[in-house]
# Entry
Amino acid sequence: MDRSKSIQVKDVFSAETIAASGTATSGVIDLTLSSGVVSLQIALTGDGTGKFEYVASNDGVTYVTPDSVSDIVTAHTKTTGTSGVEIYPLAIAAVKFIKFTVTETGTSNSITVTATLAVR
# Structure
């Protein structure tokens, strides 16, 4: 099997509830075998709004927002995409590790997030 063409899937958040104005950070995801083709599927419920970002590291110790990287999405709601589900293609620089963060930005209501990363 040619691993360069296989798709690996990783759960980033699994029914994670984020309080109003709260933030959640995923565990570390190793991109060692990635060819750079990456997407994040987000499913969100609740009446709040989610902002999604990532930080990266090459040493596994210090995580930073790479230069020229913008948020994945700043206003994902329960009506985004198909009933709150959308897939976002990501342009991720050549890095070894990433972590995702989601922040509830509506400030009044919580959200529940399930997110799945696909990497080739």
In short: The chain has one domain: 8-119. Residues 8-119 form a domain with the Jelly Rolls fold (CATH 2.60.120.660). The radius of gyration is 14 Å. The first strand starts at residue 8 and ends at 18.
